[in-house]
Amino acid sequence: MRLTPLLPALAVTILSVALYPASAQIALNDGFARDSRQPIDQTYTDHIRKYTTDPQFSSRLVDYLPASATVPTPAKVLGDVAGAPDMLPYAEDVYKYFRQLESASPRVKVFSIGHSEENREMIAVAIADPALLQGAKENGERLAKLADPRTIGLDDSKAQPLIDQSYPVYYITGTIHSSETGAPTALMELAYRLAVDDAPYIKYIRSHMIVLITPVVEVDGRDRMVDTYRWHKAHPGQDWPRLAYWGHYVAHDNNRDAMGMTLNLTNNVLNTYLGWHAQVLHDLHESVPFLYDNTVGDGPYNAWIDPTLADEWAELGWNNVAQMQSFGMPGVFTHGNFDTWSPGYLMFLAGMHNGISRLYETFGNGGADTVKRILQPEEYSRTWFRQNPPLPTVMWSQRDNNNYEESALLSTLAYFSRNTHHFLENYYMKSKRSVQKPTLDGPAAYVLPADAAELNRQLQLLNVLKLQHVEVQQLSAALTSSVPPAKRGEKPTTQTFPAGSYVVRLDQPYSRVADALLDKQYWAPDDPQKHPYDDTGWSFTQLFNVKAVRLTDTAILKAPMTPVVDFEQASGKISGSGSRSIYAIANTGQTSLLPLIYALKQAHVETTEKAFDLDGKHFAAGSLVITQADEATLAAILRKLSLDATRLSAAPSVATHPAPAPRIAFMHTWLATQTEGWWRLAFDRAGIPFSYISTQTAASEGDLRGKYDVIVFAPVGRSSSQEIINGLPKWGNALPWQKSEITPNLGLLDSTPDMREGLGYDGLAHLTTFVEMGGLLITCEDTAQFAIDMGLAPGVSVAPHDDARVVGSVLNGVFVAPSSPIANGYGSNLPVISANGMVFNVSNTLGRQGGRMLMDPYEHRPTGRGGPDDSDITQGRQLAEPEVLPKQQPWQPKPLNEDQMRNNLQVIPAQYRPEVILRFSEQKTLLLSGLLDKAGSISERAIVVNAHLGAGNVLLFANNPVYRGETIGSYNLVFNAILNYDHLRQPAASPALGQPAARTAPAER
Ligand SMILES: [Zn+2]
User: Fold this and answer.
1) Which end of the chain, N or C, is less surrounded by CB atoms within 10 Å?
2) In the sheet that 445-448 helps form, which strands lie side by side, from edge to edge?
3) Is 91 helix (H, G, I), strand (E, B) or coil?
C-alpha cells in the first residue's frame, strides 16, 4: 500500500445510536431517514464530523456511516475516512477498495472497461441488489430493445412490457479532471453506503436500479496528481509543481473529446455506457462553489437533442437543488453560465445517444489540504436562481467536498429510483424518435459520394462515426436523389451518387450524434448568450474536408445498400498494368502520405514537383513515386494507411525530388502541454516519429540543425513570448518534474529538475541558428506570435482584429499559393477552425504592423476637392498629379515605390519576403459554421504564412491546423510542409541566396 496512514487503523466501533440531526436540517416527513435499527460505525462517523469544517456543509444522508460486520469501509484501504485531509489515493488503491467491496458484498460487481494510453486500467462498478445484478444480462437485453426500437418494430405495445420489467442504469464518472481530486473517495464511500446502508430510501434505490460507477476516468492523470500532492506534503511551505501533464496527451481537454473520440477514456466510457444501455451519464467536476449542478446550465442548448432531454434536465436539476436546499446545504444551484451547445463534453455522450447527460461542479481545493477560501462576488452573490448562495469566505476541506458530492448524488438517485418507469419510457421514446428522425424532423441521410480522391479522409470521418456506434452503409447501385437547396427559397436540385457511396442513414438509434457532427452550426451574433463556453462550430464534414450531401428525401432509405463493417477493405489497392518496379500514389490530400515515408524505409520515394498524366491517370503535384519496393510489403502498408497505388509503365517526366524521412523534434514548454498534446496525438496516431524535446533542451543544445530537420513548436495555449523565454517566476524553490520514490508517475514523457526554466536567450539563439541553417520551424497561434516577436519571421505581424468576433468557428480559407508544396493535394478552398479570428499582415519591410500602416496613413487619396478618384487642386497654382497609390489585397504586402526603398534598411530582400499560403475568404463567404460577427478586419487576411530566415523557413499558423482530432482536413498543411521541408522556397521568390536582392520587384505574391 503506497498510502501512509495518517491515523492508526480505525477501530470499528459499533454502536446503536439515534439519528444526529444537523442544526439547519428539517427532519419532518423525512424520506431520507436512516434505519435506526442499523448500527453505525462510530469511529468513522466521528472522523466524518471532525473533517467537516461546518455542520451546514453536511447532510443527514452522509454525516454517519452505517456499520457492517462483513463489508470493509473505505478506511480499510485509505487508513482514514473518505475525504480525510492530507491524503489522496492512487487509482490502484481506489480499485483495491472496490474489489474488496466486491468480495465482501453480493451487491457489488467490478468490471474492467479498458485501459488508458499508458496502460492503466479503467473500471466500472455496478451496485444493486443481488437479484438485479444476477439479472443484469437479461435486463440489458430488454434495454437493448428499448435502445434500438427497430428490434420491436417501433411498436409501443411491445415496448410497454419491456419498460415494466426493466430497471434503469445510472452511470456516474469521477475525476476526469486530474486537479479536481475529490470524486474517487466520495465514490468509494457512496458505493459503501449503497451496498450497506439499510435506510429505506437506499434500499429502494438498490432494488429499483443499477448504479454504475467509474471512480477514476483520467487514470494516468490521477496518478500524476497524487504524485505531485505527495511531493507537496513532503515539502511543507514550498511551492509545488503544477500538473504539467494530466493524461498522456491532453489535460482539461480530455473533456472535449466526445466528438472526435480520440482518447481511450472517451471510448471506454462510451462503450460502457452503451454496453449497459445506461440512461444517465453523470460526470463529477470540482471548480465551482459549492455545488453547481449544471444539468440545467444555460442556453443555447445543442440544436440536435431531443426536446425531452431538456425537460429531463429541468426535472432532475431543479429537483436536486430543492433536495439539497431541504438539507440546509448552502450554495447549490443548477442554472448558470455553462451553455449546452457543443457536444464535446464527456457527459454529452449520453445527450447524443438518447440518454441524459449531467455534470456536477462541486468545490475543490486541488488536493486534500483544508484551507481558507475567499470567494469572488460573482461566486457568492444571491441571484434569482441561487437564493442560498455560497458563503463569501470559508474554511473548506476535501470532506466538505465529499459531503456535497455524496448528498447530491444520493438524493438524485433517490428521485430517479422513484421514477424509473418514467425515465425508461422517456429513454424508449427518445430512441424511437431517433429512429424516426427522417420522417419526424429530418434529414433522411447524409451521403459521402464515392470518390477515390476523398477516400482517405472519408474513412477517417466514418471511423469517428463508427466509434460513436453509428451505422454506415454503402450504396449497392448508383442512385439519383433530389437534393435540398443550399438556401431557403431556392429550388432543389438532383444529384447522382455512384455505387459504393457511403450513406449515413438517420433511421437508426444514434442518428442524433451523426446529425450533430455532420450538419453545420450557426450561432447568432446577437444571441443573448454573450460568452460561448466552448467552440461554436465543429462541422466534421467541413473540418475533415470531405463532401457530404444532406438529403431530406426519404427515398434514399429504400435504395439498395449494404452495411460497412470493415473500413480497412476500402483502400490499399494497387492497380495498373505497369511494371512492378515503379509505383505512384496520386496526391489527393491523404493525411498518410508523410507516414508512408517512414513506413517505407526500405524503398526509395520521390515527390513530384508538378502534375503529370500517365497510363490514363492524373497525378497532382506532390504525388509520390516509389521504387525499390517489394509489392507485398507495399500492399500491406498501403492497406494500413488507407492509400491506393498505381503501377507505372515508366517514370514520370516531371521534375521530382527525393522524399527523405525528415528528422522531427517536437518542442514543448513547461508552461502547458495540452495544445501541443493534440498535435502529438495526431503524429502518434498517424505514425510519424519524432523526438520529444523541451524549450530547456533547445537552450542547452547548440547544434539543433545537426540533429533535426523540422522543429514543431505547437501552440502552448495563450502564453506570451516573454513567458516562453523566461519560463515560470523563480522567486521560490525549484519545481522538479521527474521520477522519484514519492513521484513514481512523473517523468514518463519528459523530465526536468526545475520546470521554471524557459527557452532563455540561449535557446532562442539556437532556434534562430537552426532555421538559418535550413531547418523548418513550425509555429501556431501563440508560438507564431512568439516567432514574430523574436524576429524569426521577417515581414509577418499579427493584424489587429478590432471588434471581429470569432469563438471556435469554422471559417473559409482560400489558397493564395497553389503552387507551394504546402498546398499539395488541396483544391482552391479549405475550411479551418479559428479560435478567435487571429490573422496576419505581411509586409516587404520590417517594423511594427509589418510596416503596413506606418508609412502611409492614406489608403486612397487625401482630403480635398472632388470625389474619391479625383485629385485635390491647390488653389492658385497648376495641378501637380501625385503618384497613383498602389492597390493591394488585404493578404498582400504593400508595394514600395523607389523613394520608399532608397537606402531603406528595413526593406526585406525579395528572397526573404514572407509567402502567404492561405488566407480567409471575403466576408460574404467567410462563415462556414459557428459564430462570426464584424468580420471586416479579418476577412481576406493571411492565416498561413511561410516566412524565410537565412536558408530556412518559419511556418506560421493563425488557425490551429491540428486540433482535438477534429481537423483532419488541415493536417496536411503541416504534413506537406514537413515532407517538403527542404523545398519550401518558391523558385520565383528565391534567387540564389547571398545574391543582392532585386529591390525594385514589387512582391505581389
Ligand atoms: Zn472539471
Assistant:
1) N
2) 549-551, 445-448, 502-505, 473-475, 561-563
3) helix
**Starting from the edge strand earliest in sequence, which strands make up the sheet with 604-608, in order?**
574-575, 645-647, 582-585, 624-627, 604-608, 656-658
Ligand 1 center to 286 CA (angstroms)? 6
Length, in residues, of the chain: 1005
Q: How far is CA 565 from CA 471, 562, 695, in A?
A: 9, 9, 45
Q: How far does the chain reach from its first CA to its final CA, in angstroms?
A: 66
Cell of 862: 487625401
Query: Which is it for the CA torsion 408, 413, 414, 420, positive or negative?
Result: positive
965: left (phi over 0), alpha (psi -120 to 50) or beta: left
Residue 344 CA, ligand 1 centroid: distance in Å: 13
Min mean pLDDT across 252-266, 283-297, 985-999 is at 985-999
What does the pLDDT look like over 676-724, one tens digit per residue? 999 999 999 999 999 999 999 999 999 999 999 999 999 999 999 999 9
- In this prediction the pTM is 0.94
Q: Give the distance (Å) from ligand 1 centre to CA of residue 179.
A: 8
Q: Which segments within 580-623 are labelled E, that is strand?
A: 582-585, 604-608, 612-614, 617-619
**Helix or strand run (H / E) with residue 75:** helix 75-78
Q: Compute, in angstroms, the gap from residue 837 CA to the centroid of ligand 1.
A: 26
The grid coordinates of residue 71 equal 463489508
| Residue 697: per-residue pLDDT | 98
Q: pLDDT tens, 67-97?
A: 999 999 999 999 999 999 999 999 999 999 9
Residues in Cβ contact with 66 at an 8 Å cutoff, skipping those fewer than 6 apart: 34, 35, 38, 39, 40, 41, 193, 196, 197, 198, 199
> What DSSP element (H or E) covers 173?
strand 169-173
Question: Who's near 714: CB < 8 A, 6+ residues apart?
Answer: 666, 668, 675, 676, 678, 679, 680, 778, 780, 783, 962
Question: Residue 289 C-alpha to ligand 1 middle, in angstroms?
Answer: 13
Three-state DSSP class for residue 280? strand
Cα separation, 199 vs 653, in Å, equals 83
Separation CA 593–CA 817 (nearest Å): 21
C-alpha–C-alpha distance, residues 230 and 246, integer Å: 16
Residue among 836, 850, 536, 843 at smallest CA distance from 715: 836
Taking the centre of ligand 1 as the mean of its atom positions, its distance from the CA of residue 401, in whole angstroms, is 14
- List, in sequence order, every residue forming a beta bridge with 870; answer none if it has no partner: none
Which DSSP category does 833 fall into?
A: E
